[in-house]
Amino acid sequence: MVSLGYPEERFEDVLEERRCNSDLLFSARRFAPPTYKHRCPRSPAALRRAVLDSPRLQQAIREMAGEDGDTEALRQEAQSILREMGHNQGMTVVRTFAFMLSRIFKALFRHVRVNEEGVQRVQKVVQECPIVLLPSHRSYIDFLLMSFLCYSYDLPLPVIAAGMDFQGMRLVGEMLQASGAFYMRRSFSNNPFYWAVFSEYVQAIVRNGDAPLEFFLEGTRSRSNKSLSPKLGLLSIVMEPLLRAQVFDALLVPVSISYERILEENLYARELVGVPKPKESTSGLLKAHRILQNDYGSVFVYFHPPMSLKSFISGRLDITPFSMTPRHMALRLSDTLRVLVHHLAHSVVLRQQHGMVVTPWSLLTTLLLQAPSDHLFPTSCNSEGGVHLPDLLHDVRCLRTVITKIGAMQDWPDAQSHEAVVLSTLAMNSSLVTLTKEGRVLLNVDKVDRPKCRDDILNRACTVLTCAAYRNHILHLFVRPAFVAMAQRHAGSVEDGPTFSHFCFLVQLFSEEFIFEPGSERKDYEEGLSLLQRCSSLLYPLDSQHHPSTITTNFSVFLGQIFQPFCCSYQMVCNYLLTLEHGSMQKESQLLASLQEFALQQLLEGRSTELEILAINVYKNAVASLSRLGALRRERRKDGVWFLTTSQLHHVADAVASLKPPSQLPAKL
Amino acid sequence: MAAAPGNERSQERLQRIMGHLQGNAAPEGRRSSAVAQTIESSEQLKPSSASTIPKRRQEVLKWNGWGYIDSKFAINKQQQVEFLGKRYKLSGVVLPALREWMETTFGASLDHRSAPKSHLNPEYIPPPVQNAGFLLELKEMGIAHSLDAEDRLFRAHGHCLHEIFALRGGGKFERIPDLVVWPCCHEDVLKIVNLAVTHNVCIIPFGGGTSVSSALECPLEEKRCILSLDMTQMNQILWIDENNLTACIEAGIIGQDLERKLAERGFCTGHEPDSVEFSSLGGWVATRASGMKKNVYGNIEDLLVHLKVVTPRGVLEKSCQGPRLSTGPDVYHMVLGSEGTLGVITEVTLKIRPLPECQKYGSVVFPNFAQGVACLREMARQRCAPASVRLMDNAQFQFGHALKPQVSSIFTSFLDGLKKLYITKFKGFDPNNLCVATLLFEGDRETVLQQEMQVYKVAAKFGGLAAGEDNGQRGYMLTFVIAYLRDLGMDYYIIGESFETSIPWDRVLDLCRNVKGRLVQESRDHGVQFSPLATCSGKTT
């Protein structure tokens, strides 16, 4: 059992027992989890039949068929959609998975730690209400892990909304379906019939509470390891049974899964710099067996207290109008409801963030990425680059103090010395960092000479972005105080008025990048301000004689530096857009590619040193944000999404350009 | 409306005029106004038998609970529940299963008693707000009235849980009527209302006092004199029209009196709300009441032909006996459900029916509640629902079972055992899931038989098994004794309340589940130690 700074939360290692006992017995053990008390048991096939015969689907078929349309053909289409989509959960495959996953997890991870209290909270309510599990999404492992945990803790096995990409994989696709996955197409807003079938399928599961529903609010795995802006479609589908009073309540259980090392770390970085993601295939998965020989450290799973959807709605939304629509007809989502779902989704993601565990590696990357060195143009190859180990140890200690103050859960083996922890973490990530004989810690990019070609830059960017992902894992802790610090510097004062308005601008500009609860800027500001003040006062006394690093000398500058890569990226995007003719338009994919090319040129020409500006996910967010601010106009056409520059662009670009780098940023060129 | 032969009509007319001249209808001077008795048909109505409810209601009815003073559930010497009194079929019967059911269901204990106060606490009675001018003129008119504390308090409430709870604690109500007045006829009401308008007195009409909508509660902020207008002395059937099958009745008549008097003449209204023993005709109209047998007879709004309502601005009534008009909105629909806020209902003309030739109980067992609901839905679709059908969920079924009287012979208990065996073992019904629909068929023999057949056929489609007359009859008994049972429960720290609603078919199951869920949640949130018993029953509308 491990305590992670939250005295009331005890984490238990699930693998501990697995390492002592037989996996075969584990997979064959009696499994009779409690179920929702009003559930009528039915097979996956019966569920599909019920959906097919549901009044809602019948109505959709009638509507689609029109006056003299062929309802039979549509019925068959619905049937084939359901066959393609529906899960097929069965105990044989589940037990096979239990056996295999137990083996795999033991090989991959040192520990899988779970807050048992959270599990017990879920166990308590499973019988009372339909449950919706909402894990964070950082890896393919996520949903396997969730099902594995449910099996281990005698919770009913969830059915999981998965992306279609698995479905194409031979055998594996079917295996996953048999373990409880059902598939949703990535985009079906323009296919109302598919939408009808899919939403009825999901709602049928919620209404009868066949099994806990599990899906990923973020929609896809976050490659950057930052929480993604939540997708609202599935959540609004889930809300409907409650709005129509078909269930008494539904409970949302946010789950935070933190990985010490993510299995896909290399893949993600390559995707972010534009090397396309390899298509999922079974043989590809088999090749991945090499992964098994690596050490991926620990995983932390935090089950949050269930959130009652009913209490969330009460007082915010009058549900009586929903009773006016006959049940076989789809509900029209009102604007109020959309806003509410938006709000709910954000508060779930914020909770997920809150349950993330800070790992030693995330602290080290945060510090190393800011080290006074230049990843592109190292001043000298062996002696000057990187950080002195004792300095690093000192800064880690400071950062830990700050994080304790902020109140996040930390994984830090208490029994070992500081140095031991840092050294073992560095060893685990030896593909990214090196500890030189001289006792300096270097990112692996720092070792090579000045880059000559694009490939070299891209490779370096990959390493930097892999590290950045771990820094991103804890950015949510700093974003509020950092924005306050940046706003104060921008306003040139600590006065409330101008600082707050610039804070709001930052929140607005980066709202795709970082998660903020909509409409609570004031609260966020106050929180950030108070944290900033408390942390600064905490650190000044610690100011050490032997190593005046930024974190102790000027905490607000330190915070600003953490977010500098994002400012650079946004400025780069604006700069590129300014090179375009006014009113010119580009297709989304083309725009993103040009942005990356532009960024690469900047780096090659030495006009920028920030390798993170190559990350394509940031462009997407920036473009979305600029569209919202009116600098771009988004147009959906038959052949995709197009963007047009507007007359507002200059105005917005000026504001973005005014995000000055922190004053103490070491000038290196 | 068939035309009667001319000579018959003139005969009738002559007799009616004679009736006026003789002036024979005012029995023992109970009419304060000579004008009151206007219409008497040739078939002269018998002088009124006294109402079930006298002016001093507390002489017959419990002041702090439901029903007659002499009828109640009590624990006898053998520590078993017994229903005391002589009035009901159940009176004097021991119910051996009830005590255990109470103990296991609610965790109640006989040692843990919460007895009601034996008398009302005089200190709780607020002094009346007097309106001297009004009282003086009222006295001059010779209309019966009372300022007595008990009379006032016993008209300050209906039968909601919180009201009975207050009574059991000695009768603490913040505001009660200041004056009770008993009019004897429509003209009395007219005078009282006019007088009240003149002297700025407010009126709350009072019938049987069985309201569960808090309509009888006096508004706290009311500073004027509040007059409770007790209608129970206006309880005559003014006339019965056998040709048109209508009857004109004074609004204060109590349900059971109305049915008894009509039955003497071979008629009935068929309107049977659960409170029919104690509620009044005017109350039915004012609360838009629904009767148990409405499938055959209709709800009160369907039975209504004519109304007289005394309002502060004059009498509201239609100028004809036509059962419906196609021009303009129906003013009666405003009065229906107005809970006495618009005026005082004094006389009501209702459709009546000949007494049914045949009445038969029945019951059907379903494997679960959902099947039962589906069956009722089908009955409604086919429009073959009998006079009354009531579906009880499993909890209510078990509750009903706890009310089974002591079996008289080994043979009956053996038969009961066999029945249970058949249903649970042979048919595979889960005793903790099955539910029962109780049925009541009414009409001529042929219709009843035919309807029975159709109903059981529909039921069979939904897995329903006919479960005999006894079960049916006991189910209906439950509706009459349930309020007595609440009093027993309150003696042992158990409270109970019932509420009704109507909803579309496809939401029935959701509603039942959600309401039960809410009750459980609220109880838990309020720190109630035991989980509440929530049962539901439904009928077709």
UniProtKB/TrEMBL annotation, chain A:
Molecular function terms from GO = glycerol-3-phosphate O-acyltransferase activity; glycerone-phosphate O-acyltransferase activity
Any idea where the Phospholipid/glycerol acyltransferase domain is?
A: 131-260
Top-rank taxon, per record: Eukaryota
CDD domains according to UniProt: LPLAT_DHAPAT-like (cd07993)
- InterPro entries noted in UniProt: GPAT/DHAPAT, GPAT/DHAPAT_C, GPAT/DHAPAT_LPLAT, Plipid/glycerol_acylTrfase
Keywords on this record?
Acyltransferase, Membrane, Transferase
GO biological process entries: ether lipid biosynthetic process; fatty acid metabolic process; phospholipid biosynthetic process; triglyceride biosynthetic process
Q: What does UniProt give as GO cellular component?
A: endomembrane system; mitochondrial membrane; peroxisomal membrane
Places the protein is found:
Endomembrane system
Question: Topologically, how does it sit relative to the membrane?
Answer: Peripheral membrane protein
Q: In which pathway does it act?
A: Phospholipid metabolism
Record's family? Belongs to the GPAT/DAPAT family.
Kindly give the PANTHER family that the UniProt entry links to this protein.
DIHYDROXYACETONE PHOSPHATE ACYLTRANSFERASE (PTHR12563:SF17), GLYCEROL-3-PHOSPHATE ACYLTRANSFERASE (PTHR12563)
> What is this protein's record name?
Glyceronephosphate O-acyltransferase
Q: Which organism is it from?
A: Eptatretus burgeri (Inshore hagfish)
UniProtKB/TrEMBL annotation, chain B:
The stretch of residues making up the signal peptide is: none
Instruction: Specify the pathway.
Output: Glycerolipid metabolism; ether lipid biosynthesis; Lipid metabolism
* Entry's Gene Ontology cellular component terms: peroxisome
Species lineage: Eukaryota, Metazoa, Chordata, Craniata, Vertebrata
User: Which EC numbers does the record give?
Assistant: 2.5.1.26
- Catalytic function, reaction form: a long chain fatty alcohol + a 1-acylglycerone 3-phosphate = a 1-O-alkylglycerone 3-phosphate + a long-chain fatty acid + H(+)
The UniProt GO MF terms for this protein read: alkylglycerone-phosphate synthase activity; FAD binding
**Binding sites annotated in the UniProt record for FAD:** 205-211, 287-290, 339-345
What protein name does the entry list? Alkylglycerone-phosphate synthase
Major site of localization recorded for this protein:
other
**What does the protein in this record do?**
Catalyzes the exchange of an acyl for a long-chain alkyl group and the formation of the ether bond in the biosynthesis of ether phospholipids.
Write out the GO biological process terms: ether lipid biosynthetic process
SUPFAM superfamilies in the record, alphabetically? FAD-binding/transporter-associated domain-like, FAD-linked oxidases, C-terminal domain
Subcellular location(s): the record lists: Peroxisome
